[in-house]
């Protein structure tokens, strides 16, 4: 099976940089995704890493190390609107019960 | 263009009743997923369709849950003999391609149906 671990909560101030870590255990692995979800809203896609290294999309970057089964989401120049829950998700290679498994989520609070 | 839509947005039912939840994916998206999410937790995978067929239904918790996608577009999640433990937000997502391909890694989620079983 697959399992993912993330910190439950992170707090930072506007303009700061925050890193949300994700470690995973999986029997097969295609890639690591990140989703943002505001309270009462739907998850929205942020980033995907299939290969080792850093992917940058505006203020958000995501990193993957397949050898360490580890990734992180980096949010720069934090804004109040970034307050939300962030989920890492693993895309597995096994077609049975392994397609997409989401982590428990990290609740980010951005303070003024 | 239109995103993923789900109806109803809220459903309150009594224990033991039957419910149907509908998902209308983005036009042209071949892959469709159902998840359920409890408060403070990540989405939990239920079932994945590729076209009309259920490619993976291993996440359905028991035989009270069933889903169809007869024409490869709209999908309906059906729950029989609802229990209080079924209360959650049921999310539907679609992607342009299968998860094993280059077009399948980004999922587009609908707003969800909040199911409350009294």
Characterization of the model:
The complex is a heterodimer of chains A (about 110) and B (about 120). With about 110 residues, chain A is mostly beta strands. Chain A is about 0% helix and about 55% strand. In chain A, strands 2, 4, 5, 9, 10 and 11 form a six-stranded mixed sheet that branches. Chain A has a five-stranded antiparallel sheet with strand order 1-3-8-7-6, with no helix packed on it. The model of chain A has no long low-confidence stretch (mean pLDDT about 90). Chain B has about 120 residues and is an all-beta fold. Chain B has strands spanning about 5, 10-15, 20-25, 30-35, 45-50, 55, 65-70, 75-80, 90-95, 110, 115. In chain B, strands 2, 4, 5, 6, 9, 10 and 11 form a seven-stranded mixed sheet that branches. A four-stranded antiparallel sheet of chain B has the order 1-3-8-7, with no helix packed on it. Classes of the chains: A mainly beta (about 110), B mainly beta (about 120).
List the secondary-structure elements of chain A in sequence, H or E. EEEEEEEEEEE
Secondary structure category of chain A: mainly beta
Radius of gyration of chain A (Å): 14 Å
- Note the gap between the termini of chain B: 37 Å
**SS class of chain B:** mainly beta
Distance between the termini of chain A: 41 Å
Number of strands of chain A: 11
Low-confidence stretches of chain B: none
The major pleated sheet of chain A works out as:
6 strands, mixed
Shape of chain A: globular
**Shape, principal axes of CA atoms of chain B:** globular
Query: Can you write the helix and strand succession of chain B as a string?
Result: EEEEEEEEEEE
**Oligomer state of the chains in this structure:** heterodimer
On the 0 to 100 scale, the average pLDDT of chain B is: 94
β-strand percent of chain A reads over 45%
Report the count of strand segments of chain B: 11
Helix content of chain A: under 10%
Q: Largest chain interface and its two residue counts?
A: A-B, 24 and 26 residues
Mean pLDDT of chain A: 91
Rg of chain B, rounded, reads 13 Å
């Amino acid at each position: 099976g697959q399992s993912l671990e993330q910190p439950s909560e992170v707090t930072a101030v506007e303009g700061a940089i925050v890193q949300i870590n994700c470690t995973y255990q999986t029997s097969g692995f295609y890639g690591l995704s990140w989703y943002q979800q505001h309270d009462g809203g739907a998850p929205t896609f942020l980033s995907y890493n299939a290969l080792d290294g850093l992917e940058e999309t505006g203020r958000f970057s995501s990193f993957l190390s397949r050898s360490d089964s580890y990734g992180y989401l980096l949010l720069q120049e934090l804004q109040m609107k970034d307050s939300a829950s962030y989920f890492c998700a693993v895309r597995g290679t096994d077609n049975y019960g392994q397609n997409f498994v989401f982590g428990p989520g990290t609740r980010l609070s951005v303070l003024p | 263009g239109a995103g993923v839509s789900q109806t109803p947005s809220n459903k309150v039912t009594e224990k033991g009743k039957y419910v149907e939840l509908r998902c209308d994916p983005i036009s042209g998206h071949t892959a469709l997923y159902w998840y359920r999410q409890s408060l403070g937790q990540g989405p939990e995978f239920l079932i994945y369709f590729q076209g009309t067929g259920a490619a993976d239904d291993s996440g359905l918790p028991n035989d009270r849950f069933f889903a169809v996608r007869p024409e490869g577009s709209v999908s309906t999640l059906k729950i029989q003999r609802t229990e209080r433990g079924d209360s959650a937000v049921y999310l539907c997502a679609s992607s342009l391609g299968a998860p094993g391909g280059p077009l399948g890694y980004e999922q587009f989620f609908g707003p969800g149906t909040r199911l409350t079983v009294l």
